[in-house]
């Protein structure tokens, strides 16, 4: 769930791109880019941190993930 939704802020279609990027990252790496031990830690991390994208992923995929992850609150 995108940070804007967790914070109950106004949002647009960019949150869907952000969520898609997080899903692609998880599928490609097998790792959760926001893994935390508790639900509250997870929520805090999604709101405050950038996703942890493994450096061993393909450069083009990393570029895509960074692009969709950097568009919080804006249309692509």
What does this structure look like?
By secondary structure, this protein is an all-alpha fold. It has a domain at 33-76. It has helices spanning 3-6, 14-29, 39-48, 59-69. Helix 2 (14-29) runs antiparallel to helix 4 (59-69). The model has no long low-confidence stretch (mean pLDDT 90). Keywords: ATP-binding, Kinase, Nucleotide-binding, Serine/threonine-protein kinase, Transferase. InterPro entries: Kinase-like_dom_sf, Prot_kinase_dom. Residues 1-76 form the Protein kinase domain. GO terms for molecular function: ATP binding; protein serine/threonine kinase activity.
What integer value in Å does the Rg equal? 12 Å
Determine the oligomeric state from the structure.
Answer: single chain
Which structural category fits the helices and strands? mainly alpha
So what's the overall shape? globular
The residue-averaged pLDDT reads 90
In terms of per-residue confidence, which ranges show pLDDT below 50 for 5 or more consecutive residues?
Answer: none
Number of helices: 4
Protein name: cAMP-dependent protein kinase type 3-like
Keywords: ATP-binding, Kinase, Nucleotide-binding, Serine/threonine-protein kinase, Transferase
GO molecular function, one term: protein serine/threonine kinase activity
Domain Protein kinase: 1-76
């Amino acid at each position: 769930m995108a940070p804007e939704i967790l914070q109950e802020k106004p949002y647009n279609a960019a949150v869907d791109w952000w969520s898609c990027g997080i899903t692609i990252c998880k599928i490609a790496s097998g790792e959760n880019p926001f893994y935390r031990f508790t639900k509250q830690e997870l929520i805090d991390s999604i709101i405050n941190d950038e996703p942890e994208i493994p450096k061993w992923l393909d450069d083009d995929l990393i570029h895509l993930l960074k692009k969709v992850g950097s568009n919080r609150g804006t249309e692509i």
